[in-house]
Structures are given as C-alpha cells and as structure tokens.
Design a protein that fits this description.
Helix content: over 70%
Order of helices and strands: HHHHHHHHHHHHHHHHHH
Number of helices: 18
Number of strands: 0
Structural class: mainly alpha
Radius of gyration: 27 Å
Largest sheet: none
C-alpha cells in the first residue's frame, strides 16, 4: 500500500495537472460546452421543446395519457392568442395582413417563391419577437401524438429508422413494439441531443487527459535509472505491479475529477428534471433500442466513459513501459490519441443506445457499444498482465 501511494504521488505532479487543466478549459469551451448553451433558448426549437416538456412534467407526470392530450388544444389556443398580441406590436405586420397565426401562414405561403428585403426583415421580426417557435413545436407534438394514437408511426420515427439500421428488421420490430405499447412520453429532443453530444466529447476529453497524465509514468524511472536500484530488493522487483495499479487507479480518479468539473455545467442546465422520463418520446427523432429512462441513459453514458478511460490508462502505461525517452513516448502517444479520440471513442459514444449508434449499425445487435467498451478494457488489462509477465523474465 505504501508503494502504491508513492507511485500515485509520482503520477500526480502539480505542473502536469496545471497543464491538463488549462487544456481542458479550452477544450470545454470549444466542444462540450457548446451543446449546453441553447438548452432553454426560446429562439431555438430544441429550447422550446424543453420549455413545453418542463411544463407538462409538472402538470401530467412523465407521460401524457389520451385524456390529457385534449388539454393541449386549449394550450394551443392560448399560444395563438399570445402570438396575435405579439404580432400586433410589430411594425408593418398589420399592413402586410399578418394579424394572427392563420394569416401569418397565408402570408408565408404567398411568399414561398422569394422575399423582398422588406419582407425578409418582416419575417425575421415575426420569428424573433413572437412565440412562433412554441406554436409550431406544440402543433408538431400534437400531430405526432395523434398519429401514434391512431396506431401509425409518426413520420419522425419511421423516416429516421430506415436511415440507421443496416438490418432493418430489428429496428422495424422495435418501433412496432413501442407503438403497440402506447408509450406517450415527451422527453424533449434537446435532452437526448445535448446528452449524446456532451458525453461524446466528455469521453474524448477523459481519454485524452488520461493519456497526458500517464504518458511520463514509467519513462521517468527509466531516464533516472531507478529500475536497477529497485531490483536490488525482493520488494522492489514487484514495483511494476504497483505502477500498473497506480496508473489504472489514476485513470479512474482523473475521470472522477473531470466529472466534478465538467458535469457541473451539465447539471446546471436543469436536464435532471427529466430524470424519470422515458427515453421513448413522441417528438424525438433519436429513437432508443431500450426502455430506459433519461436518468438510466445518463448513467450508461457515464459508465461507458469510465470504461473507455480505464482502457486508455492501460494502453498508455504499457506504451510507457517500452519507451526509453520522452520523445519515444511522444511518438507512441500521438498514434494512441489518434486511434482512441478520433476512432474508438467517437465510434462507441456517438449515438450510444440509439438507432444512430455506429457499432449497432455495423452488427445489428443492440448493446454493442457496451460490449466494445468492455472488450477495450479487457484488452488493456491483458496487455498489462503480459507486460508484467514479460518483466519477470527480464534480467537487468
């Protein structure tokens, strides 16, 4: 245990941690943070969906039953009345014949072939200064709900399913199963899309930061020729075991630290209010293979992130063992980062658990993402064990 603590101290060097923190700050602003900015933005249709769903969550619970669907007609009438009040305050709208939502549709249809500069400015003013997005989003939800209630597939379901699965029969059976169950969830698209993209890039960062932290681990000992001194004692000959264990443990601890920093902004969006909502939603284009709740989906994504970081830690410490200098390790770390962060991690994390998941599209088997992540960890552990076995046979 004392040896493990000493090896952990050697890995967690303040200067290296500071450099990783600065890179992480830049990376967050460039990638994961982008997908959280517009979660509740009323000018974006994803943000409007989130606002509508949040209100329904308080009124109807996590699903909307057919008798509750009738209340949406009244909500739509209220939103259209608000639209009429808002559009009346826009200069030039009344002169163009736009006094309510129906007249706006007529005006928009009459100008499909092109707009003058003044008409373009008027259209933008209507879009920016009214609840037009909310009215159209509610109408889309109601249309999809009614289609599903009649025993048919909403266009947003059927069209995307055909795009995703190479073996169409499993995906078709899945959609028919859900349709027959009559699940009327209303989890907003923003919740799934933000989580999918956020954890995609969060996993990339966790893997990348683990490679940066662990790359110098064993190279430093070889440069200082400490291995010969360690092998003079029986206890010292087992130091590589402690170093491997410290590296894998450091990967887990670094992921926990990244979670503490990165997940704060994600939680601040208020997405967890949808924790109990079904991942199967009336207006979600991202269709799930499993009957998860949103909370379970987030835990699965987090679990995949930990597995991939653990695998990256194992690969890194093995390469570090066979590098005699920092330059040699750098030449190994760059291809490793490329394979992991631009290959394996996006392949597993992008659309994990959804019809858009890449491993599932390749195999046609739901849950392939978890299997691939587990196999990555298994491969890393096997390489670590083979390295330990080889080291025992080496003579200094």
């Amino acid at each position: 245990m004392v040896l493990l603590k000493w090896e952990l101290k050697k890995i967690w060097r303040p200067g290296l941690l500071l450099a990783i923190a600065l890179i992480g700050l830049v990376f967050y602003d460039a990638r994961p943070g982008f997908y959280l900015e517009y979660f509740w933005d009323s000018s974006d249709w994803w943000g409007v969906q989130a606002q509508l769903s949040s209100g329904w969550l308080e009124a109807y619970g996590t699903t909307m039953e057919p008798e509750e669907r009738a209340q949406l007609d009244g909500q739509l009438a209220e939103l259209e009345a608000q639209f009429a009040q808002q559009v009346a305050e826009i200069p030039g709208a009344a002169e163009a014949g736009i006094t309510d939502y129906e007249s706006y549709l007529d005006w928009d249809a009459a100008h499909q072939n092109g707009l003058t500069e003044e008409e373009h400015q008027l259209g933008f003013a209507v879009y920016s200064n009214t609840n037009l997005n909310m009215v159209e989003s509610l109408m889309e939800f109601m249309e999809n709900y009614d289609t599903l209630a009649e025993g048919e597939e909403p266009e947003i379901w059927g069209g995307r399913v055909g795009e995703y699965s190479p073996a169409h029969q499993p995906s078709i059976r899945r959609v028919e199963e859900v349709r027959a169950a009559g699940v009327f969830g209303f989890l907003p698209s923003a919740a799934i899309n933000s989580a999918d993209n956020f954890f995609h890039y969060f996993a990339i960062w966790c893997v990348f930061s683990a490679v940066l932290l662990l790359s110098p681990t064993l190279v430093r000992d070889q440069l200082r020729r400490t291995r010969a001194m360690q092998w003079t004692s029986r206890r010292g000959r087992g130091v590589l075991n402690a170093q491997m264990g410290a590296a894998l443990l450091s990967g887990v601890l670094l992921t926990l630290l990244n979670c503490a920093v990165y997940l704060g902004p994600f939680l601040a969006t208020g997405a967890l209010r949808f924790w109990e909502c079904s991942l199967i939603s009336v207006w979600n284009a991202e269709f799930p293979w499993f009957d998860w709740t949103y909370g379970q989906y987030l835990l699965i994504l987090l679990g995949l992130t930990f597995l991939l970081t653990l695998a990256a830690s194992g690969f890194t410490v093995v390469l570090s063992q066979f590098s005699g200098s920092y330059v040699a390790m750098l030449l190994k770390a760059i291809p490793l980062i490329f394979v992991l962060c631009w290959g394996i991690v996006p392949w597993i994390m992008a659309g994990a658990g959804l019809f858009s998941g890449r491993p599932v599209r390749l195999t046609g088997l739901p849950g392939t993402e978890s299997v691939c992540a587990a196999l990555s960890v298994l491969l890393a552990v096997v390489l670590c064990l083979l390295t330990l076995r080889r080291q025992k046979r080496v003579e200094l």
